[in-house]
Structure formats: structure tokens, C-alpha cells
Specification:
Blueprint: H1 3-14, H2 19-36, E1 44-48, E2 53-55, H3 64-80, E3 85-88, E4 98-102, E5 105-108, E6 111-114, H4 121-132, E7 137-139, E8 144-152, E9 158-161, H5 166-175, E10 182-185, E11 196-199, H6 206-209, H7 211-218, E12 222-226, H8 229-235, E13 237-238, E14 241-245, E15 268-269, E16 308-313, E17 327-334, E18 343-347, H9 358-378, E19 384-385, E20 391-393, E21 398-400, E22 402-403, E23 414-419, E24 424-426, E25 434-437, E26 445-454, E27 460-470, E28 474-479, E29 483-485, E30 492-497, E31 503-510, E32 517-518, E33 526-527, E34 535-545, E35 553-554, E36 558-563, E37 567-571, E38 583-590, E39 597-603, E40 610-611, E41 619-622, E42 630-636
Helix pairs in contact: 1-2, 3-4, 3-5, 3-9
Length: 645
């Protein structure tokens, strides 16, 4: 409970001497204690990455631009861009205190946030446009942890009363919400295709307004009403069945507008954590006009226990003589306390766009918009997209599935899949189960995949999933020589396809292509392995993309074989011959790599050797063998890399 509003009224009661004033004081204390004991809806704590856009709803003084235009931005993003909006409300805050703090700024008034993941180029353009109209916001540069009340996933569709709805049309103009967002009907015409009925003034009768009962019950239609339409509506009974009454928020009806006095500010404010009550300051003087400026239950009756009297006049002079109170300026709840029915909200006064300060008018109109967005979100048929991987390789077909909440048949809806990164859907983008084929990309690209379902009334609901389309990065390696002799020269070279900045390399070796080990220091695009020893090793390279969630890529592997240098031996059959005999010498070369030529040589002393002209075959015929001549063969012009003669 807001102690500021409590204390100032207790002070005023001390100067009152009448029994009536004392009764009002006691009633006020009881009401205050009761409301202070009501707990708020549990929030979900979420941490949003940097890059989110915070719409500052707590700027003071509040103006049409900084207080109402944000509702136009939200409508634009929900309706035209299918972007989920986080509604952030601190469940333990007092009136006008912070929902959260970021970079030293306390954000108040029920902050809206657009997560970074959904900020496409098109969305950023819309944010910039609305900022030019006066919306105040900031982009985060670090993660933020926030208490999320709900995530908005549908744009409201309003129906304005065809007789008096134009009183409230200015609210939409102030917010920048287009006229296509609402239609005009009489209460009797409301059907399953209408969601929120705006009735700022009316003279209801059973004949003209009884349809509100069934519409609210059967279609969860939400009703926002003001001025004396409220007390008259609550009193209407079915002439043929007097037990049937339209007392949505009271037990027996309200004091007729013509029978009670007006309210007198300052007012008391409760439920600062309820979504309807997200506004800054007061509405006091914005509700001081029209034929009914306060609503009070009849004697013998009361507000329903499910009804929240969120703004009240604790000193209204007809309490407790005409009414047990409290005297409500703003009251809301589920009709008849039935959770299966639509919301109903009553707001005092005839026109919330003409009395009081600009800030008070903005606050009064924000109540209506808060009521609308929450009511629409409560009845949204939000689809559920099945599992989508965090990363999808470019061109890799990915199965998509779509379901609706229990009780809803997908066959009764049209389906439309969309992707912000291109690609295609097969066999169709209009089937609940389809296959997404991502586009080719040269760098990792964020992608929003959206499922949009539309019912027969034209209502649009959506769900969005984020993923990253990974470029088809690949790397291959080649060697200038795959087999060399000991000491030969080898250079392994990598070739990158669809690479980008931030890529590093790591060469690896393996004896069997199963177990791989990093080669210390081998982190360049090329690598020259050692050939000092006989070996046969496999090599490959990994590419590592720093800061990317798309993972690494691995090259093909190549085998490098290091062989021994060529060798040759000769044989003389028979081993012993006579001087002067003819002998055929045979050379047996061993060449592991390439080819070698043969050159026979002779020497008289094993020191000086001379090539024998024409003796280049594997055999050499010696005629008239001498006693002291020696012979040998030499391998020459070997072609193998690093191979010695």
C-alpha cells in the first residue's frame, strides 16, 4: 500500500468531528488494510542480453508523446512486425517506484522492453520513427535482469460504441494508434469477432445493452465503461426475469448517478503492481467532469470480493449514508467474479482528454490502454513452435511444427510462416508442419522464424523463435609434396571457403586418422612439417571462429610419407672369374620416390673414379677383365623431393 496516500488522509480525519467522518475514517482504514494484504501476480525473472530497447514509461512530467505514444509503438510492432514485447512490472513496488534500475536510471510505470533478438533492421526503423514522435527509450549495452509480468503477443482489436465512442477516439489519436485498429458497433451487434468494447458514455437499457452479458460470458469480451453509463448499466435487469442483472462488479448494483454527490480529490491509489495501474502520478483532476465522477455500491450491497477498487475517494460525503463504499474512481475485475468471463473496468468521468493537467489526462488514458493490452493478451490463442536448433547450417532443411493451445483446432486458422533471413518453406509456408530451407550466407546471420495464425475473424496471433544461420564455412588442405625423402621440403596449405574475420587455425597430426593431436605453434594458414625422420603421418587443420556459436570446421586430412634416400647394390655372377674373362655386372637400385638414372664408373685404386661412357643401364658388360680395375654404379638425377644421389 502507498503510505503517502494513507497518511495524508488520516491527517484530514483528525480535524473531522462528525460521526459520518469518523465512520468514513474507519472504513478507509479497513479498506487500506484489506488492499494491502492482496498479493500481486508472480513475475518471471528474465535476463535479456545487451541490445534490448527499453521504452521508458516513467518519464516525468508525463506528456502525450512520452506517455501515450509508446502504446502506438507497441501496437505497431505487435500488429505489423509480429514482435513480442516484454511488460516489466516489479511485483513488490509502491506507487510510482521503480520496476528496475539500469545504468543508474530507475525505470517506472510498467516498462516495455523489446529484446535484442527481435531488433531487425525493420524493427529498428520503427523504433527510430516513434522516437522522433517523442517516445523515450534507450538501448542497453549490457545484460539486464528484469521482473517480467507478461509478454505481449497480440495487438488489441477495439470496438468503440457507435453512439458515444468518439469521446474516446481522441485517446487513440494521442497514442498514434491508427483508425484501422478499431471499429464502431452498437452493444447489440457485438459477437465472437469483437474483443474490447469502449463505452465512454451511454444510457443503457436492457433492450439496447443486454447483449453485453452474453458477449462477456460466451466470448470473454472486455468492457471499459465510464461516466453514468456505469451506474445505469449495473442497475439494468431483464424485465422478464428480474434475477438477471448486469451488475458485473457489484453485488446488487450502484447508486444512480443522479442520486449522489461528486467525489473530491485527493484520491487514494492501490494495486501499484497490477498491470491496469501502470501510470505515473494521479488522475484526480482528469476525472472531474461529466455526469458521474464516482461509483458507489447500493446500501445492503457491496463491490464484489473479486472487484479491485484501485482509485477511491475516502471522504466521499455520501458514504456511509447512501452507500457502504468504498467510493470508486477506478474499479475493475472479472465480470461477476467469474474467471471464465471477460474483464470489466469502470473509470469515472465523461472525457479523460479535457480536464486536469496533461500528466493527469495521460494517466487516465493509460489506464484504458493498459486494460486493453492485458485483456487482449489474456485471450490470445498463442501458437507454439516446435524445437528449432540454436544454429542451422545454411541450406540445411529444418523441420518446423506448429500447435495451438488445448481446445483450439489448427484447421480453423490460416497459417503463415515467415523468416527475416530469407530462405524458403517446403512444401508451403501456409502449412502447420513444413520444412524451412535456410538461404546461403557468407557470415553467420541472425534469423527470426515467425508462425502467424489468423482466425476467421481476422485476429492475428504469433510466436517467434530465434536462430542463427551459419555460413557454410569449409576448409581444405593441399600439399606440394605428399611423399618425400628424409630432409625433403613439404608445405601444407589451407584454403578457406565462406570465411570471415575472427577465424584462427590449428594444425593437427595423427598416426591413424583416429587420434588427433594439436601441433604446438602450428596456427598459421600454412604448415611445413618436419621430414627429418622416416614416418607416415596424417595432417589436418581446424578453423575456429572466435565469438561465434556456429562451431568449428575441420579440413580433409592428407598423409605425408617420409622415405629413405635411394640406394643401389651390384652383383657379379660368378663371384670368382679369371683375368681376361668377360663379366656382366648387374645393378639393383632401390628408389622409394621418383626415378633415378644409372651411371657406371671405374677406378684403378678406389679413389679416383671415372664415368664409363654409355654405361647407363642396370647391367654393364666388362670385356677382358683386368687384375686391378674396380667398378661401381651411381644413382644420378634422382627426381624425388629431397632425395640424394
Amino acid at each position: 500500500m502507498d503510505s503517502f496516500y494513507f497518511s495524508k488522509h488520516i491527517t484530514s480525519f483528525k480535524s473531522a468531528d462528525s460521526w459520518q467522518s469518523i465512520s468514513r475514517a474507519i472504513l478507509f482504514i479497513v479498506i487500506s488494510l484489506f488492499y494491502a494484504s492482496i498479493s500481486a501476480k508472480a513475475q518471471t525473472t528474465e535476463t535479456l542480453p545487451s541490445g534490448a530497447f527499453i521504452i521508458d514509461m516513467g518519464v516525468t512530467p508525463q506528456t502525450i508523446n512520452n506517455g501515450l505514444k509508446p502504446y502506438g509503438l507497441i501496437y505497431d510492432l505487435l500488429k505489423n512486425n509480429y514482435i513480442p514485447i516484454k511488460w516489466v512490472i516489479n511485483s513488490s513496488k509502491l506507487k510510482d517506484s521503480a520496476d528496475f534500475t539500469y545504468n543508474g536510471t530507475a525505470y517506472k510505470g510498467g516498462t516495455f522492453i523489446i529484446p535484442a533478438a527481435y531488433r531487425s533492421t525493420a524493427v529498428n526503423a520503427r523504433i527510430s520513427y516513434w522516437q522522433s514522435l517523442g517516445v523515450v527509450g534507450t538501448t542497453t549495452t549490457s545484460p539486464i535482469t528484469i521482473p517480467v509480468y507478461t509478454t505481449l503477443k497480440t495487438a488489441p482489436v477495439w470496438t468503440l460504441d457507435d453512439q458515444n465512442g468518439r469521446i474516446a477516439e481522441d485517446y487513440f489519436i494521442n497514442a498514434g494508434i491508427p483508425s484501422t485498429a478499431y471499429n464502431w458497433l452498437a452493444p447489440s451487434q457485438l459477437s465472437t469477432c469483437n474483443d474490447i468494447f469502449i463505452m465512454p458514455h451511454a444510457d443503457p437499457t436492457w433492450a439496447t445493452h443486454s447483449n453485453l452479458l452474453t458477449w462477456n460470458r460466451d466470448h470473454k469480451g472486455a468492457i471499459w465503461a465510464a461516466c453514468h453509463a456505469v451506474s445505469v448499466l449495473e442497475a439494468i435487469k431483464d424485465p422478464s426475469n428480474l434475477t438477471q442483472q448486469m451488475n458485473f462488479l457489484s453485488t446488487t448494483g450502484l447508486v444512480d448517478y443522479s442520486d449522489h454527490k461528486d467525489a473530491t480529490p485527493p484520491y487514494n491509489y492501490y494495486f501499484p503492481t497490477h498491470p491496469f495501474m501502470q501510470f505515473m502520478g494521479t488522475i484526480d483532476n482528469a476525472v472531474q467532469n461529466g455526469s458521474e465522477q464516482v461509483f458507489m455500491p447500493l446500501l445492503g450491497g457491496s463491490w464484489r470480493t473479486s472487484t479491485k477498487v484501485a482509485v477511491l475517494d475516502a471522504t466521499q460525503e455520501n458514504v456511509p449514508t447512501l452507500s457502504p463504499g468504498p467510493a470508486a474512481i477506478v474499479a475493475y475485475g472479472k465480470a461477476f467474479g467469474d474467471s471464465t468471463r471477460g474483464n470489466v473496468l469502470y473509470e469515472a468521468a465523461h472525457d479523460h482528454n479535457k480536464g486536469g493537467t496533461i500528466a493527469e489526462r495521460v494517466a487516465a488514458q493509460r489506464i484504458m490502454f493498459n486494460f486493453s493490452y492485458q485483456s487482449a493478451n489474456e485471450r490470445a490463442v498463442v501458437p507454439t513452435i516446435g524445437y528449432i536448433p540454436d544454429t542451422i547450417p545454411a541450406g540445411s532443411p529444418t523441420s518446423l511444427s506448429l500447435t495451438l493451445p488445448s481446445g483450439y483446432n489448427i484447421a480453423n486458422y490460416t497459417v503463415q510462416w515467415q523468416s527475416t533471413c530469407g530462405g524458403s518453406f517446403s512444401p508451403s509456408a501456409t502449412q502447420a508442419n513444413t520444412t524451412f530451407i535456410p538461404p546461403s550466407v557468407s557470415t553467420a546471420s541472425n534469423c527470426l522464424i515467425t508462425a502467424i495464425v489468423t482466425d476467421s475473424c481476422g485476429r492475428v496471433f504469433f510466436e517467434v523463435k530465434t536462430t542463427v544461420i551459419c555460413e557454410n564455412v569449409s576448409v581444405s588442405i593441399s600439399a606440394n609434396n605428399a611423399t618425400v625423402c628424409v630432409g625433403g621440403s613439404v608445405l601444407l596449405t589451407s584454403t578457406l571457403t565462406n570465411g570471415s574475420a575472427g577465424i584462427s587455425y590449428q594444425w593437427q597430426s595423427s598416426p591413424d586418422a583416429l587420434t588427433w593431436s594439436n601441433i604446438s605453434g602450428a596456427t598459421a594458414t600454412t604448415y611445413a612439417p618436419s621430414t627429418a625422420d622416416l614416418s607416415s603421418l596424417r595432417y589436418r587443420v581446424l578453423i575456429i571462429k572466435s565469438g561465434s556459436i556456429c562451431g568449428n570446421a575441420t579440413s580433409n586430412n592428407l598423409t605425408l610419407t617420409v622415405v629413405a634416400d635411394p640406394s643401389v647394390s651390384i652383383s657379379i655372377p660368378p663371384a670368382i672369374v679369371c683375368i681376361g674373362a668377360n663379366v656382366t655386372l648387374t645393378a639393383t637400385p632401390t628408389v622409394g620416390l621418383g626415378t633415378c638414372g644409372i651411371q657406371w664408373q671405374s677406378s684403378p685404386n678406389s679413389t679416383t673414379w671415372t664415368n664409363i661412357s654409355g654405361a647407363t643401364g642396370t647391367t654393364y658388360n666388362v670385356t677382358s677383365l683386368g687384375a686391378s680395375t674396380r667398378y661401381r654404379v651411381q644413382l644420378v638425377s634422382c627426381t624425388g623431393n629431397g632425395c640424394c644421389n
